[in-house]
Amino acid sequence: MKTTSDEIPARAAETGPALEIRANGETRSVPPGTSVAGFLARHDLDPDLVVVERNGRILRRQDFDGTTLEPGDELEIVHFVGGG
């Protein structure tokens, strides 16, 4: 099926407006359907080097891909820093 330029705005509108969450105390806008893994990637955070708490519960790393952010979610993200 060929896509025309006229169809692209309609598809973009289907995803809906950005939703607001809070991450480490700051309000952030994210596209609908953004997973925790997607949020981390957008902010250049390595999922192997962070702990993510969503709405008061620590998420397992294997759940980052399957956990979709919802309006009003509150994330606390702690990343590990090496050094000596």
Cα distance, first to last residue? 57 Å
CATH class: Alpha Beta
CATH architecture call:
Roll
Radius of gyration: 16 Å
Globular, elongated, flat, extended or rod-shaped: what is the shape? globular
**Number of distinct beta strands:** 5
Ranges with pLDDT <50 over ≥5 residues? 1-14
Query: Approximately how much helix is present in the residues?
Result: 10-25%
Strand line-up across the major sheet: 2-1-5-3-4
For this structure, the CATH topology is Ubiquitin-like (UB roll)
- Share of β-strand residues: 25-35%
- Average pLDDT taken over every residue: 85
* Whole-number count of domains: 1
**Helix/strand/pairing category:** alpha+beta
Please trace the helix and strand order, writing H or E for each element: HEEHEEE
User: What is the CATH superfamily?
Assistant: Beta-grasp domain
Q: What's the number of helices?
A: 2
Tell me the major beta sheet: 5 strands, mixed
Characteristics:
2 helices, alpha+beta, 27% strand, disordered N terminus
Sequence-ordered SSE layout with sheet pairings:
Elements: H1 7-14, E1 19-23, E2 26-30, H2 36-42, E3 50-54, E4 57-58, E5 74-79
Description of the molecule:
By secondary structure, the protein is an alpha+beta fold. The chain has a single domain, classed as Ubiquitin-like (UB roll) (Roll), CATH 3.10.20. Strands 2-1-5-3-4 form a 5-stranded mixed sheet, with no helix packed on it. Strand 3 and strand 4 form a beta hairpin. The radius of gyration is 16 Å and the shape is globular.
Quick structural overview:
It is built from two helices and five strands.
